[in-house]
Design goal:
heterotrimer; A alpha/beta; B mainly alpha; C mainly alpha; B: mainly alpha; two-stranded antiparallel sheet; 14 helices; C: mainly alpha; two-stranded antiparallel ribbon; 8 strands; 69% helix; 4% strand
Chain lengths: 453, 347, 379
Amino acid sequence: MSSDKNALHTPLKRRSVLKAGAASAVVGAAPMIIPSTAHAYLNEPKGATVTLGFNVPQSGPYAAEGADELRAYELAVEHLNGGGDGGMMNTFSSKALKGNGILGKKVTYVTGDTQTKSDAARSSAKSMIEKDGAVMITGGSSSGVAIAVQGLCQEAGVIFMAGLTHSNDTTGKDKKANGFRHFFNGYMSAAALAPVLEKNYGTDRKAYHLTADYTWGWTQEESIAAATEAKGWETVEKVRTPLASTDFSSYIAQVAKTDADVLVLNHYGGNMVNSLTNAVQFGLRDKMVNGKQFEIIVPLYSRLMASGAGANVKGIFGSTNWHWSLQDEGSKAFVKSFGEKYGFPPSQAAHTCYVQTLLYADACERAGTFDPCGVAAALEGFDFDGLGNGPTSYRAEDHQCFKDVLVVKGKENPSTEFDLLEVVEVTPRAQVEYAPDHAMFAGGDLGKCNSGA
Amino acid sequence: MDAILLQVLNGLDKGSAYALIALGLTLIFGTLGVVNFAHGALFMIGAFCAVTLNKIFSISSEKVNPDKTDFLGNPLVEKTPYLESWFGDTGIAIMDWSVPLAILFSIPIMMFIGYVMERGLIRHFYKRPHADQILVTFGLAIVLQEIVKAFYGANPIQTPSPAAFVGTLDIGVYIGFAENAITYPYWRLVYFAFACAVIFAVFAFLRFTTFGMVVRAGMADRETVGLLGIDIDKKFTIMFAIAAVVAGVAGVMYTPINSPNYHMGMDFLVLSFVVVVVGGMGSLPGAVLAGFLLGVLESFASMNVVKQFFESIFIPSIDQIVIYLVAVIVLLVRPRGLMGRKGVMEE
Amino acid sequence: MNSTTLSDRALLLFFIFLVLAGPAILAPFGGSYPDLLQKFAIFGVFAIGFNILFGLTGYLSFGHAAFLGAGSYAAVWMFKLLSYNVLPALILSVIVAGLFSVVIGYISLRRSGIYFSILTLAFAQMMFNVAYSVATPITNGETGLQIYNDDPQWLQGADSPLTTNLFGLKMNEVFWRPEFLGFEAQFNVGYYFCAFFLILAFYISMRISRSPFGMMLRAVKTNQTRLSFTGVSTRPYMLAAFVISGMYAGLAGGLWACMDPLAGAERMQWTASGEVVLMTILGGAGTLLGPVLGAGFIKYFEAIFSKINDQVLHSWFAFMPDGLENVMVAIVHPFVGKGWHLTLGLLFMLIVIFLPGGLIGGITSLGRWITGRGRKDQG
């Protein structure tokens, strides 16, 4: 037990690490003025440890997701350093990780609060890079923040492993050579959902979109509308809702005035909870329109947030990146080690963050360096399995992971408070793939990898 | 026509929350001259009174059920609320009615919080500049919401209305419209009626009781009332407690409409200040009127036809800015808002 | 030379010393890294500017962040269109913020007191909402305006650096990393660039405060009615003060974009406007040094306290026996990391309760107490 505790807490002699870092910087270079060329790349770890930066929302509306992400990161660090039961390291197809840190260096970490604001997130990431010497930044629970921090990491010269970010733009028009995304995106949600919706609701449907009025909402609305229209659906109306809305009743009230028979809620987090609650309040789900049962769709589900909507999610379709009830070896191992440590199952945000940390560590091992350019090269085109999503690959052209997508439905009879969603279909990867220059992702430029040297 | 009536109804319903918060804020603002940035937090605490009562009601006995397993494959621990096992159906009914019951629960709590806040903190700031009041009440608001966050987490917590109020009422048929022309959720109608009752009660209290008379006199001229030998400070403490209760019960009843979270107070804070100022400083009817007015205008602005009209004259997304645009227009046309009194918070 | 200008000169020299030695002074407090130092200077400029309006005239603007945001957007657009050189960006950011403040100031100053505050708030919130959503082609909405590889950058030289610079001098360059008492200090070009403007801003605000114009503004605060009875029209003075402070905000926004070329909409939100109000009051409204102190105080807490996690706590209390260590960590835990807002809120309350006049008021009375006691000792 006490050795376990040490494994967790000793990496943290912050002051001594700091001193060591400062000392090495002074020794390693000309006495006074230290040009950046003193290191082969930015923040090259010279001591016995390597520092990762976990930049998650700890205040604001996504604080609960941020907290879950942080738990996953701490678990990943524990496993990387050889502690705990190893989790998904045992099921990971690549065997480069040995449980002795990364490249023999013990993993330590710093944490920060993005406040779900681009500015605060960049400030926090900058302090990790400038002050704590982090070689990799990861985290985030919204696309705006992820894109902003990804841009910063590109400019600074460290790797960014995106957390929960679902906008097409992250690996579309805002893709960066130093940034990598494991999470799925709006296009994939739409491609996975459309066939299931067709099967359940038919081809003759009229959809009404309520969309959060910012970039993520727009890309998702575009994706869902295109995919459902390809199945024969008609898009009756696309209505944008202000981001500060807490009450969507005036928008919902209008839906019933049209001949739409499906409502698509392109909202996430708190917005999703409120708009869904409002829609159910207004009795939309009991309505019959055009001789059909009225249906509601939430394209991107978050189990954590869904609990805020309670019974209102029952029977409502959506998609997620991962769900704890999956029965493959990787998922089971992850749920076991996470659940035993914290007492509840991990969220999809936790999963993607854990996987990203492992993938980064593995890429360093395979590349034999922490140099961002080497790591990026090792991640590009990397095929792997055993991390909960089946066979997955990091596409070199846009740094997006391609893997199966889950279509889920709000469970009718949940047995526990975590048992809110059931997996309806695992949409095979081939069905959600797209060309790197697809119209919804066009206009971006990865640029060249930047090592900050 | 029915679409417009529906939005009017919706605006009144939205406006109820604005009006209730603004009413309490004006009592503090107008009577005590204190800029209370913690007023939104009082609304939030009210909502969490409902959450707390719900939690208390669902305190459960735990029994291991070996037939079922939890997510880790261990035997499932099944929970049965004590209320259910002790009182059967009555217990279930009590749990179902937890939100309305939370009003009774919240009134003493909010009175106590209001009393402590006024006696312990606000009292010492009557003579301090408004800037200091802002800083101290903003600090208090942050502290209160962080405490709630520490206990209940950052996620919204669902707090359903009694089953009897789930669903919608077809109002249209009563006033001569076709079926399903104007349907509205029961609970939102309850909220509107409740808001009207509270507003009426506060006005009646101020109008027809001696206490109210003294307070109104104190609002007009505090020093003279003090000279008459009336302990106006004590009255003002009670006034503060009443304002806290109004905000609190508004929060309690709001929980089934939108699941409460720890930052809901901040979400309403700025809006409620706008409402109070648009209504006019020191005017209770003004605050209520402005609350309902802004609610209705906000609902109108969200109508597709209205949005399209404004887009055609190059003002896209009017619903994003309507409240603030109206505030600017009102304040430019009427220097002291709708019904403001001269000289209150003008310097 | 009278004593006022003498003490002013001493204050200015003291301020210059503080600013120039900033990286060294902050090293022991873990604050000596470019981003935080730059934020100190940027928000210092912002708060000094805000204080010219609020501290002197008592007019409480609740929408000043809008000018900061406008300045940032203007600066990033200059980077996108011209080059990474910071000078054109700064100039345009001040001009754009000035234009916005003329319009908003002209309308808002028709009212006073809380009505003025709400008017400024309303304008700023409209700008924020529009910037976040419909104005996305100009502002890039949620993500924030940033520079892409395919931006025109007409004046960008072939071999000039691909990061913000002043004629080749890179803003993100750390030119000296000495160690002070075991703590690393980072001397950064960007910080000294901001520091130059901070000192300039401080000097100008000092001159304004001592000028007849400043006297007039103070007269507005004391009794505007009396002033208008004497036949003085205060409006032009007020508008001038509003625009000057708006341009300060624009300068701050421009500097921010120069240090970190991304302009996010959140920096125009009411919370951001509220933050500068808090900074000014916290430090001491109406004083010269107070707003800068307040700005530093809040930014320091945001940057440092939010990063303290349980790991760090355990390392702090590692010298204690295990049981005691865990108890200490459990006690401190709610106030740091994700709980940093709680600490900030508590400090707001404590400072305003016990230090009327803000931090600077506290320092002054502390000074008086010490000298007073010293005198007693002598007596």
